[in-house]
Amino acid sequence: MQIQVRNLTHIYSEGMPYESVALEDISFDINKGEFVGVIGHTGSGKSTLIQHLNGLLKPKSGSILIDGVDITGKDVKMRDIRRKIGLVFQYPEYQLFEETVHKDVAFGPLNLGLSQEETDQRVAEAIGLVGLDYEEIANRSPFELSGGQKRRVAIAGVIAMKPEILILDEPTAGLDPKAHADILRMVERIHEVQQNSIILVSHNMGDIARLAGKVLVMDRGRLALTGTPGEVFRQADLLESLGLGLPPATYLMRELQSKGVPVSGDILTMEEAEEELYRILSGEK
Known about the structure:
With 285 residues, the protein is of the alpha/beta class. It has helices spanning 46-53, 78-84, 101-111, 116-129, 134-137, 147-159, 177-194, 205-211, 229-233, 236-241, 248-258, 270-282; strands at 3-12, 20-30, 35-40, 61-66, 69-70, 85-88, 165-169, 197-201, 214-219, 222-227.
């Protein structure tokens, strides 16, 4: 296992009047190279969880092992954690600060102690990997770019450090449909090229169903459900009781079933829905 989380508990403002248990007895595993989706209602503990995985928060109790090393230990060096685990916060473009795109993307690798030569190479690779033209934007101010381009530059700054585990917290938040789709295609390409593990936090059930191989469902600080997208989204009543929904394609199939159309109820993605409708319309069995 690349990530082993065991009995993780975190308490905000412990001992104070506003004490709040944010995580309670969380345990799960993530294999190397897996694409994992994390879903849950607002306040369910998703952001608190991923900040533990990056070492930004320390638990009240429990352990987090990354490649066998407990990152909650006192002797763990934060630089070693940052080399392995990259975290992209919501609206990462707000964290851009350098005068040029190149300098902004280079900030992380340089702080890892890499040479200027290797840093420059990683910057060019990362900018290309997020779908931008290095020659066109490298020397431009990041603040002159469009919103979608700024977000890509911010993500490039994280992947330039070549993390073995990439955590993305709502990477498409606030984007229009085209930019939303572009960012997700970019995430898929990063996963394909860097062969890293990806943890994607999202409220979009369709995105999770299409991209993730494993889904973690959070509810009020606890892990309510885990499994493949098929296993998780079959639990429609449970998910809806947690304030969550199903992928749009699944709702479409359920509506067609209610009208007497003999479609499968296990459809999760629009691609699968398209194939299923083609099967029905062409008379295939």
